[in-house]
Amino acid sequence: MTLPTGTECAVLADGAFASGLYADPRGLPGRRRAATAPAAAAIELDALADALARLHGHFEVDGHRLTGDQDGVRGKGSIIQSLLKGLDLTGANFGPLSCADIRFEEADLSNSAWSRISVRRVEFSGYRLVS
């Protein structure tokens, strides 16, 4: 799947993008309806601490601002109430992964693999996603 760079969207708890159309929740084939915007991620940007953490091995990120090159990392864990801005996750491999109240801004998620993930109130803005 290829999505254009710079698309504004959010992911619902069931993994559907909130900026487009998604399948009818009853699973009826061919039925689609306009998505409604979910609640925004609850992030207090002023309270975030800058982190140099590498998303490798087992990690737990809570209340941090992550930036930089993390391409090819492999890990599992959780990311909560955090901002991932300008982050390069090209070729990263995550799973299991739990994400809640996080925002990806200008992130490169190209060719990354995410398995067994749980997402709640996750926002994507200005990202690149190619698989």
What keyword list fits this structure?
single chain, 131 residues, mainly beta, two-stranded antiparallel sheet, 0% helix
Descriptive account of the structure:
- By secondary structure, this protein is an all-beta fold.
- The chain has one domain (2-130).
- It has no helices and twelve strands.
- The protein has strands at residues 2-3, 8-11, 21-23, 32-34, 49-51, 57-62, 64-69, 74-88, 93-105, 113-114, 117-125, 129-130.
- The strands form three sheets. Strands 2, 5, 6, 7, 8, 9, 10 and 11 form an eight-stranded mixed sheet that branches. A two-stranded antiparallel sheet has the order 1-12. A two-stranded antiparallel ribbon has the order 3-4.
Helical fraction: under 10%
- Number of helices in the DSSP assignment: 0
Rg from C-alpha positions?
A: 15 Å
pLDDT below 50 for ≥5 consecutive residues: which ranges? Answer: 1-26, 31-35
Protein name: Pentapeptide repeat protein
Organism: Candidatus Protofrankia datiscae
Could you write a compact summary of the structure shown?
The chain has 131 residues and is mostly beta strands. The protein contains no helices and twelve strands.
Map the helices and strands.
Elements: E1 2-3, E2 8-11, E3 21-23, E4 32-34, E5 49-51, E6 57-62, E7 64-69, E8 74-88, E9 93-105, E10 113-114, E11 117-125, E12 129-130
Parallel strand pairs: 5-7, 6-8, 7-8, 8-9, 9-10, 9-11
Antiparallel strand pairs: 1-12, 2-11, 3-4
